[in-house]
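Researcher: Here's the sequence for the chain we discussed earlier.
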Amino acid sequence: MIRRGEVVRRLRGIGRADILVGIPSFNNARTIGHVVRAVQAGLAKYFPEHKAVLVNSDGGSRDGTPEEVERAAVDDFQRLLVRHRVGPFHKFSMPYDGIPGKGSAFRAIFEVADALEARACAVVDADLRSITPEWLELLLGPILEGEADFVAPQYHRHKFDGTITNSIVYPLTRALYGKRLRQPIGGDFGFSGRLARHYIGKDVWSTDIARYGVDIWMTSEALANGFRTVQAFLGAKIHDAKDPAADLSAMMAQVVGTAFGLMSEYHDVWKGIQGSQSVPQFGFPYTVGLESVSVDVERMLAIFREGIHGLGTIWQAVLGCGDLETLAALAAERANEFRFPAGLWARIIYDYALACHRKSLPRQHLLMSLVPLYLGKTVSFILEATDMDSERAEAEIERLCLEFESAKPYLVGNWR
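Model: Thanks. This is the structure I predict for it:
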């Protein structure tokens, strides 16, 4: 809850606002100034008559991030605006309370939105280098125009960026809820004040959602509860990308664990959904140049192969003897011939979701044991897509999604 006296005083001074934009941060001084200036320019250009507030929810940065937020400003509005800004603009940085992580930062933003009775809200990542003022129009416009309660992002990303999304979160979310939201954990969202109040009302802030799971939680809550959902094409997402071979195990476990937990909560919603359908899209898709993403294939493949020996007992308990034998055969293949079948991967994710639901193994051990399998699937995609252009690589992801959809009866039939 919002308790800090200075924040409360500032909110009382502002009163109400039409728009709230939140930027969660932790040690992002190098990039957050650009993000703040883009937000300020977008609000001034596209929503000059609306009262707007920008809130930086900071997790205790020690590199001067809050100070950079206060310094950031657009120097020359005359060249940017068709007309002068009329509505007032407020900007402040505040620390958040709770478990360190993105979810706690979002909770503070939701509470500010509620306190200000904001009509339309957006959150954007603090490490973005590709954000433009137009992003604000696309994330907030559908909300203010009454066409949506939730705006998910759609980007062009390098084919090896966002591998957790591409191999697990997008196919799973699409198969469960029947909506083709390409970036369920994109990090940059628009949402209505009504949806912000829904988020605040959920008792999840002492769980892993408060760390890395908040993006998939926001998306799933919107889909499962029937909030009007659209997506907006934002161009390129260029940020501090991470090598899939780097230590992303904790983040992956928390994101996937959140998705699995929501499956238990919303079983009655997703069990009868078959296939998937597109959602309305705002923005004009266009081709953009993308920065390359370096990957350490040998390290990922080594971790997968080590899992056969170190995690074989857990894998057998979750997947059964047949799939374990298939994995062992895969591990024995030469690196350049390594291929992870899409149907096997869909079944593995569903078996892990079933095991998580049944609580057949300690949750953290279960989720961490999925990491080497995810790295193996990622290696397979990288090897297959190395010589593909982005369009062909995207077609491979589409085929994986269809595998998840066609295998869904296996999930539904084994759920109890």
